[in-house]
Amino acid sequence: MAKSIFFLIAVLALLSTGTVTADIRTRTALFRSQPTPEAADIPFTTYFEVKNPIPLPNTKPCSYLVLEHDFAYTYTQPPVIADYTPPTNCPFRDFEKIVLEWTATSKGRQFDRIFGVWLSGVEILRSCTAEPRATGTVWTVKKDITRYKSMLFSNQTLAVYLGNIVDSTYTGVYHVKISIHFYPAETETKRNRFDNEYGSGADLILPITRTLPLNDGLWFEIVNASDTATKDFKIPSNTYRAVLEVYVSFHENDEFWYTNYPNDYISANKLFDAAGNGPFREVIVKLDGLVAGAIWPFTVIYTGGINPLLWRPITGIGSFDLPSYDIEITPLLSKLLDGEIHKLSFSVTNALNVWYIDANLHLWLDPKQKKTQGKLLQYSSSPLTYSLHLNFSGLDGSVVTNASRMIDSSGYVNSSQGLVITRFLQEFKYSNFMVIGNDRELQIVNQIITSNNTLNIKTSDSVVTSTKSPREFNLYLYMNTIPKGNIAAEVANVSLGFKETTKKASDSGVLTTRLWNLQDGQGAILVKGNLVVSGIGSTQHQLFYKGENSCYFRNVSSSNYTILYDNEGSECIQEKKLHYVPRKSLLGSPFP
Q1: Closest CA to 15 of 438, 525, 479
Q2: What are the beta bridge partners of residue 171?
Q3: Using 50, 70 and 90 to split pLDDT, how confident is the model at 586?
Q4: Alpha-carbon Rg for the chain in angstroms
Q5: How does DSSP classify residue 314?
Q6: Contact 487, 17 (CB under 8 A)
Q7: Closest CA to 410 of 421, 396, 420, 402
Q8: Using one digit for the tens of pLDDT, what is the confidence trace for 380-412?
Q9: Cis status of the peptide bond prior to 55, with omega within 30 of 0
């Protein structure tokens, strides 16, 4: 409560003497286009995303610089290409962990830019740049890329696309270094008690992307709700497992899809420049026309999103390392083992321009048999259950949107490991409550997405492994314009986070991991005409992870580029001791 009162006092103090529309895209474009005043003697500011650290062995890595490049005017230009060759200076071949490191600096004025890194068409990183300051910004992204190990010991083509514009107004050039660190296994490698041949890294990874040459990224572009991106592929006949890893990001008219108005509201008020199709989106993946899985994505907010001061220097969850989403298609594998060409396709329900989507098909190959066989035992995909209730008078009103879906499939594959039955179940629920007030100057969004992926594997000797991964994505957004005279304060408060629990059960017992990642942000910018006069931004971030043998927590807060406190440790504290005050959801569910 004290934090909210302090912030309100600060906003009122900023207002001294035109009203600016509260449309989130207009506001964000205005914020992104103008830097806030700052002193010239400030050193480079380090931006960072709060993440659970990558668990590393106690060994010295073999490090390899794979690319160093300055991204100036690269928009609509081909991706930067480099030859990747495996490290030759490493005396080891057994690597327990492989880490990609992206480090970049920039100075001047620039938008946030989405970018991707591909290895022979396989995407290994999707990310967003930090918005630079006049005095300079530096940031580092570290990502565990061990799952791509099968590609990293042969020659490949590295491609990086970062579409940037440099001119007399936007002067920020991104100076980038990409390195890969290979960590040898310890003498006595500590294996997880659930590790087995079936769960190890894939033997082959097929890119489900566009192919070079391009003047863009290798991702597909989905520009509307009827658009579909399709890729032909063929798999080896000795495949016994297949997992599709999907990368997703949303931009332009759908960057803030969770705030989009219903079309009836737009038509009634003649708001034809407003983003519509309502606030619900889902990515649908089809295999030869059959729904193989769905993705209801986390609401990543990029470093210039809503109010850039919210993300300086603590960036939004997922902004530096956008999540990818796995879909187990092993139950459908029998359809692919005929030696023929097949199709994977992607579409986005209610999409507006533009979504960037591509995928990697991870395949496990039988080293003892030239051909495996399979059969689809059961399949069901319930149609999307969707409802939107709109109540408005003029520009003011409320919108309640709910959705749910279930996809269930099971099948067997017969290989040298015997007959293995796999079942993959996806369950989704979605709710979004939106308030529009003060003639569109006020918008409140409260959204919850829950999903549960269940994977059951039964071997021929009746060994059963079950993995359940329930997730909850939470978003609360408050945006308001407070005018006074010819100055207006654009206020934006955000609560963003997710809770994830993974339970793996087998004859060896049950392994449970938990991850909570939670952010609160309060920001305001003063606008006079089309000029940003000044602004304030504060962020509080808490992360808690608990695994089988390790724990990690971090509690960090910032205000206007300054870190107020930063506490972290590896003690297995109880969740109830986290100093986080839950926000009561308008939907009746607590956050977190």
Answers
A1: 525
A2: none
A3: very low
A4: 24
A5: B
A6: yes
A7: 421
A8: 999 999 999 999 999 999 999 999 999 999 999
A9: no
